Amino acid sequence: MRKKVTIVGSGNVGATTAHWMASKELADVVLIDIVEGIPQGKGLDLYQAMPIEKRDSFVIGTNDYGDTANSDIVVITAGIPRKPGMSRDDLLNTNYKIMQDVVGKVIAASPNCILIIVSNPLDAMAQAAFKISGFSRNRVIGMAGVLDSARFRAFIAMELKVSVENVTAFVLGGHGDTMVPLPRYSTVAGIPITELMDQATVDRLVQRTRDGGAEIVKYLKTGSAYYAPAAAVTEMVEAILKDKKKILPCAAYLQGEYGINGLFVGVPCKLGARGVEDVIQIKLSAAEQSALENSAGAVKELVAVIGV
Predict the structure, then answer these.
(1) How crowded is residue 143: how many other Cβ atoms within 10 Å of its Cβ?
(2) Could you tell me which residues come within 8 angstroms of residue 304 by beta carbon, excluding any fewer than 6 positions away?
(3) Is domain 145-306 annotated with CATH 3.40.50.1010?
(4) Using an 8 Å Cβ cutoff, are 236 and 269 in contact?
(5) CB under 8 Å to 252, separation ≥6 — which residues?
């Protein structure tokens, strides 16, 4: 029996995630949205590409959660972007209400699924989904670290003019201004980047990584990134569906790891068939630990606003 993945939200991130997943033949894909016609049109268009791609992924679009029943994984991208004049708390509260509605419907149809949260503010929305669903912590995961690390890797490869395949990078912490790129654990063919570039260059790339999303928003003017976020989700889905035991940075609910308790924070996780199968604890310097705790503090402020 083929695997089934539902993507909630058929905007740029949701539709592009469906595209990546179907083209990799990872699963049958259900694209669901409250807007009538958009998921159906995009789903049918994508399915019609499968004969050309020679992939047997079935793709449908729907407004009915009944069509999502028995999904193995549900990716939630639904939510509104922050608009001019809107406070962070307004965005939080609006997207929290959306999350309450969506998660309730998702788990009624697919009580055994794994949830991957993409909606912003990401760490707080992952915490909301965790509390609403009542799932065990291994079954609720936030997508951020894979994306942020990919941005760091791209900038390192551009700077050193090397293959992106040679570059590994780790970015921990919350998805936002307080994220914690770790140059000591970022390498090119196994060589730490701190051996290959001076501190000023490292600092510049770290800052560009933190500003990675904002840089794209500035160019697009009317939207935000979606190719790389969708690819990041797809890598997580593939690791789970294929039980790869792949170590990826994800937002996970911590219970004392890294000295943090009761919060979703980006850390290295082993992803397999059960979702987050292990949280990998690496040794951090005092400065790195302090930065991670500062990032966790920013997440704590957000979850306090919505009371989760």
Answers:
(1) 32
(2) none
(3) no
(4) no
(5) 137, 141, 142, 264, 265, 266, 267, 269, 276, 279
Predicted model pTM: 0.96
Going by the DSSP 8-state scheme, the letter that residue 246 receives in this structure is E
> Is 19 an annotated catalytic residue?
no
Q: Are 27 and 1 in contact (CB under 8 A)?
A: no
pLDDT tens digits, one per residue of 185-237: 999 999 999 999 999 999 999 999 999 988 998 999 888 899 999 999 999 99
Q: Kind of pairing, strands 180-181 and 187-188? A: unpaired
Q: Which two tokens stand for residue 223?
A: 């939207």
Say yes or no to pLDDT of 86 above 70: no
Dihedral over Cα of 230, 234, 240, 246: its sign = negative
Contact assessment for residue 78 and residue 120, using Cβ atoms and an 8 Å cutoff:
no
Per-residue pLDDT tens digits for 270-289: 999 999 999 999 999 999 99
Where do the domains of the chain lie?
4-142, 145-306
On whether the CB atoms of residues 11 and 230 are closer than 8 A, the answer is no
- Cα-Cα-Cα-Cα torsion 305, 151, 212, 222, nearest 10 degrees, comes to -90
Q: Which helix (H) or strand (E) holds 157?
A: helix 145-160
Count Cβ atoms below 10 Å from residue 84 Cβ, excluding itself.
4
Contacts of residue 218, Cβ cutoff 8 Å, sequence gap at least 6: none
pLDDT band with cut points at 50, 70 and 90 for residue 90: confident
| pLDDT(160) > 70 | yes
Catalytic residue among 19, 139, 151, 175: 175
What is the CATH topology of the domain spanning 4-142? Answer: Rossmann fold (3.40.50)
